[in-house]
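In response to reviewer comment 3 from the previous cycle, which asked for concrete evidence that the modeling workflow produces usable outputs, we include below a single protein chain processed end to end. The sequence was submitted unchanged, and the resulting structure tokens are shown without manual editing.
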Amino acid sequence: MEVCYQLPVLPLDRPVPKHVLSRRGAISFSSSSSLFGAPDPRQLSQRRGAISYDSSDQTALYIRMLGDVRVRSQVGFEPERRSSHPYLCIDFRTLHARLGCGSPSSSSGTERRVHRLLSFQRYLHSSRLLRGIAQQIPLPILDEDYSGQARCMLEKVGNWNFDIFLFDKLTNGNSLITLTFHLLNQYGLVELFQLDMVKVWRFLVLVQEDYHNDNPYHNSVHAADVTQAMFCFLQEPMLAKSLTSYDILLGLLAAATHDLDHPGVNQPFLIKTDHYLATLYRNTSVLENHHWKSAVGLLRETGLFSHLPMEDSLNMERDLGSLILATDISRQNDYLSRFRTHLDQDNLCLSNASHRHFILQMALKCADICNPCRPWEMSKQWSEKVTEEFFQQGDIEKKHKLEVSPVCDREANTVGNIQIGFMTYVAEPLFAEWARFSDTRLSQTMLGHMGLNKASWGGLQQEQSPGSEEAEPSAAATDSAAAAATESSSKEIPQGSRES
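The workflow returned the following structure tokens.
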């Protein structure tokens, strides 16, 4: 029987009941293999994660946006599924591992038990941190040398050459928590908004844990990289002199949560596999809606803004959604056209709250796809990671006899082809307009890096295809990138956005 469980907070000096299990951040949970044995079906359990369901409801569509969702499982009841497709209730965290091991049944029971144990240990470690209890035995890697180097890096967090990969190693994989917490304090937002330090820390811990770090690209390091880029944009003169503290808090939170609980596959995959997320959001900005509602769930679960008036808290959640929904690449042309019109008419007024919000949307969009604008060594790493995630999705599609999505076929595409197409049709138009808006040294640096990186990928393509005079993106890569950049949408601006 498929149920969703969450480990409740227990005193550290009490034994853990055998029926307690933890599964955080997954889209679904199977109780078939438990470290401690099968849970009591009569036990009322809680679920911490973005998606949960009540087994008495055949639609199985409950979004976790009201704090902890309580799920009652019934003895002998098998949840009715809408179709027989294997991805309807699958845990996306195990997709790639299953692909490498053959059939799902080939995973040994020992491996599953170890996975449960690691989750349980991670929960106990987090619960101590959340209560503000110092670690009795600090992790060996977090010695003074590593911590000192991490602090030195944070002193240059506004540098566009900031190496997020090195920073993640120095923080023992906690780059998102450490970076975001530092920026909130640097702006004085914790004190200004009278935020509870323990709640802030707990929120950031849960945010980082709800990213799937087995995703090659859409993981917590990507979220930390986007947050750092967002900080660089917030420091630009046009924004620094105009944005309010509310705008800055909103921008940093949106950057940190913009891909929360990303499953490592794209929206077309969810739609064609009839996944319940696609049904829930009616095939519209499926992932972005899911990221937003997941973030709202964590805000309410931790009570980060519970001390604020209800109206202010709801406005924050709405505006957070507006920023996250703007990262939907299928709506790139909508936002770019609107941005271009504002610049052509020279009518952007950053004293206007709706105009500031729109610029925050554009800044987050730039931060989200800024990898081609980074120095070559970092840009190349990100390119390889995102392409590998594409290819892993293609491998899954082939294995299950599905139509392979564009740019996801590793036999028909290369990293260089995909990157040249992406830069040509998606990144260059966006960053050219951003440079018109904020013509600064940073904007010119980003455009310069992108030009050099595009040339470097072209050179690598020529080396791989010595018979061709000029490296050209593959048909699949260019078609997909062009479609993403030029897709015209008749949908309205997402709810919560502020129109000018």
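The CA atoms of residues 431 and 466 lie 32 Å apart. We consider this sufficient to address the reviewer's concern, and the full set will be provided in the supplementary archive.
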